[in-house]
TrEMBL record, chains A, B:
Pfam families in the record: LacI, Peripla_BP_3
Name used for this protein in its record: LacI family transcriptional regulator
UniProt keyword annotation of Membrane present: no
Domain HTH lacI-type residues, every copy: 12-66
SMART domains, sorted: HTH_LACI
Molecular-function GO terms, alphabetical: DNA-binding transcription factor activity; transcription cis-regulatory region binding
Top-level taxon in the UniProt lineage: Bacteria
Keyword line: DNA-binding, Transcription, Transcription regulation
Length: 342, 342
DNA sequence: ATGAAAGCGCTAACAT
DNA sequence: ATGTTAGCGCTTTCAT
C-alpha cells in the first residue's frame, strides 16, 4: 500500500524521489508540480517514483516557502451548539473544496479563551478566521488590526468594518406571515423569545409588516418570553385567554411552538384545523417530534456557513467585498401544523 | 498593541529580534527558548526586543525543523451531530491544554470523503487522529498502517488493535435499573431503539441483569423499535396494554421517554406517582422540555472526548496503552420523572 | 558568553 | 531539458 498511503517509518522526501528517478531535486520538484519544461518521459519517471515511494510533499516546507498555509481558523462561541454546527458544516464544506483545512476552536463564550485562541491561530499562520456564535446578537470584534481577514457567521461584530453574515430574521417572519395569510388565517398571534433579542424583535417586525399591509394586526400583543417549551405552554394559555378566536400562532422558535402545540391540544384546539402553527429554526428533532410536525422557518445555516467561507476565500484571494452586516434569506418548510391531510 | 497582537504588514522574524537586540540570530533563539548559557542581561534584552516587535515564532519553521506539527486531526462521521459534539468539545479541551491544535473534518458518513480527509490530514503531518461517530456501532478501521496513532471515540473500530472509547451502555442500564428499584418500583418496562443497535441491546442487558439479581424481570418484553418520540408514544400504549400495572419505564433514549411521557399523561397516568420514567442521553432540550423533566442517563461524552485526547497524547508521547474497546462510565441525572416534589 | 554555519523539505531563480 | 543554488524561519551543533 505504500503507493497511496504513507507508511510508518521515515518520511519520504523529494530528495528520495529525485534519487529514485535519477534526476536532480529541482527537476523532481518541477515534474511533480507540473511546471517548467522537460521531457514527457522524465516527468513520468518522477511521477512514478513518487507514487512508488508514497511521496507526500511536506506542507510545512511548502508553507514556509510560499508563505501560505492553506489553513483557516474556525472559532465558535457556541460550544458547537445547535446553531453554530450547521454553520461550521457549511463552512467546512466550502473550504474543503478549496483545499483549505480548518483549525477549530471553542471559546465557551469566554473572552480570555477567545483571545488565547485567536493568538494561537495567528501563531499558526491561518490565512483567515471565521467566527460563529450561538445567537446573532452583536458582539465585540475579535480584533481590529488582525493580519488576516475575519468573517462573522451567525453572529455579528459590533465593528461595522467587519463582514457579518446573519439569517434574515425579518424575512423569516414575513415568510411565516404570508404563509398563514395564504392559508386563510386572519387572527394571528405571536409568541416568541425575550424582547432583548434582536432576532425576536425582527421576526416580530416581519410578521407585523405583512399583517399591517393586509390591514390586520397581531392578535393580542406580541408575547415576549423565553426560548423554552415551558414559555410556549404559558404563552399559549395567555393568548387563548386574550383572544379565544385566534386561528394561527407564529412562534419565535420550534421549542416554543412545541409548548404551544401541547397546550392547544390540552385545551381542545385542533392543529391545524382550529389553530395553525408555525415555528422557527427547523430544528428537526423538535419540529418532527411535535404533534403535528411543525411548519417552520429554516434559517439556512448551512448556507450562511458556506457563504462565510466563500467570502473569506475571496478576501484571502484579494477580492474583498463590502463589509457590514449581510443577511441570508430564510426558507419556509411546510409541514402538518399548517396543512390539512398530512 | 504591537507587543501582543501581530499587526498587519510584514511578519517579524527572529532575525529582526536579533538585530534589534544587537545579538546574533542563534543567540536570540537560545534566549527566547530559555536554553544555553548567556548573561541574564542579554537574555532580557532579547526578550524585550521580541515583545517590543511582537515577535511570534513561525510554527511552520519550527515544525519543519523539529518534525513536529503540534496538530491532530479530528474526523467526525456524525456531521457534528448531537453525540460527536460533546466528544469533540472534550477532546478540544484536553488537546488545547497540551498546546495541540485541532484540524477538523466531517465525512458525512461517506467512505470516499473519509479516505480523502485522512490523506489530507496525513499530508499535513498531523501527529494523531481522533475519529468520532454518530453511534457506537463498530465500523471499519480508517487504516491499518497509518504513520500516526488513531483513537476512536463514541464509535468503535472493527480492528481490535485500535483503541476505541465508548460509553458504558450496559452500566447505564444498570444505573437506571438500580435507581428504579431503590425508589420502590418493581414492574419495570423497557422501551428502546432498534434491536440492531448494540447500544440498545446493552442497555437492555444492564437492566435485565439488575432485575434478575432482584428476582424480577422486565415487565412485558423489551420493546425494541426506533429512536423516535413517535415510537415512544406507541410503545407506551403497547406496554400499558401488556401490563396495565407497570410502575416504571426505562427508555433507551430521551426522545423515546418523551413520547412515553406524553402517552402516559394522555392515558391518565401520573409521572412519577403512578409510573416512574428514566430516559437515556441527557439531551437537555428534550429531557428538560419534557413534562415532568426526565431522570436520565448521561453518557459523559465530554469525558470520552477528553480521555480520547489524553490517550492520543500519551501514544504520541510514546506511552502507548493497551488497545481494544474501552468503556467510560455513565452517570445518572435524577429529575422529577422519578422523584416526587420537584 | 556569543557567533557562524549547517540544514529541516521544498521551490524558484539562475546556470548549464 | 536538466542541474545547481539560494533561501523560507528556525534550532542546533560547533567554533570562537
Amino acid at each position: 500500500m505504500s503507493n497511496s498511503m504513507q507508511e510508518a517509518g521515515r518520511t519520504v522526501t523529494i530528495r528520495d524521489v529525485a534519487a529514485a528517478a535519477g534526476v536532480s531535486i529541482g527537476t523532481a520538484s518541477k515534474a511533480l508540480n507540473g511546471v517548467g519544461r522537460m521531457r514527457q518521459e522524465t516527468r513520468a519517471r518522477v511521477m512514478a517514483a513518487a507514487r512508488q515511494l508514497g511521496f507526500r510533499p511536506n506542507p510545512l516546507a511548502q508553507g514556509l516557502l510560499g508563505g501560505r498555509t492553506y489553513t483557516v481558523g474556525l472559532i465558535t462561541c457556541d460550544s458547537f451548539g445547535r446553531f453554530s454546527i450547521p454553520v461550521m458544516l457549511g463552512a467546512e464544506d466550502a473550504l474543503g473544496d478549496g483545499q483549505i483545512s480548518v483549525l477549530m476552536c471553542d471559546t465557551r463564550d469566554d473572552p480570555i479563551r477567545e483571545r488565547h485562541h485567536v493568538e494561537r491561530l495567528l501563531d499558526r499562520r491561518v490565512e483567515g478566521v471565521i467566527v460563529t456564535g450561538r445567537r446573532t446578537e452583536p458582539r465585540p470584534s475579535i480584533g481590529r488590526d488582525l493580519p488576516v481577514p475575519v468573517v462573522y457567521a451567525m453572529t455579528q461584530s459590533l465593528d461595522p468594518s467587519d463582514l457579518s453574515l446573519i439569517p434574515d430574521d425579518e424575512g423569516g417572519g414575513v415568510l411565516a406571515a404570508q404563509h398563514l395569510l395564504a392559508t386563510g388565517r386572519t387572527r394571528i398571534g405571536h409568541i416568541t423569545g425575550p424582547h432583548g433579542f434582536q432576532a425576536a424583535r425582527k421576526r416580530a417586525a416581519g410578521l407585523g409588516t405583512v399583517l399591517s399591509d393586509a390591514g390586520l394586526r397581531v392578535s393580542g400583543e406580541v408575547l415576549y418570553g423565553e426560548w423554552s417549551e415551558e414559555w410556549g405552554r404559558q404563552g399559549a394559555d395567555i393568548l387563548l385567554r386574550t383572544d379565544p378566536g385566534v386561528d394561527a400562532i407564529f412562534c419565535g422558535s420550534d421549542q416554543i411552538a412545541r409548548g404551544v402545540a401541547e397546550t392547544l391540544r390540552e385545551r381542545g384546539r385542533r392543529v391545524p384545523d382550529d389553530v395553525a402553527l408555525v415555528g422557527f429554526d427547523n430544528w428537526e428533532p423538535m419540529a418532527l417530534g411535535s404533534r403535528p410536525p411543525l411548519t417552520t422557518v429554516d434559517m439556512n445555516l448551512n448556507e450562511i456557513g458556506r457563504l462565510a467561507a466563500r467570502h473569506l476565500l475571496d478576501i484571502i484571494a484579494g477580492r474583498p467585498g463590502e463589509a457590514g452586516v449581510r443577511t441570508v434569506p430564510a426558507r419556509l418548510v411546510v409541514r402538518a401544523s399548517t396543512r390539512h391531510g398530512t
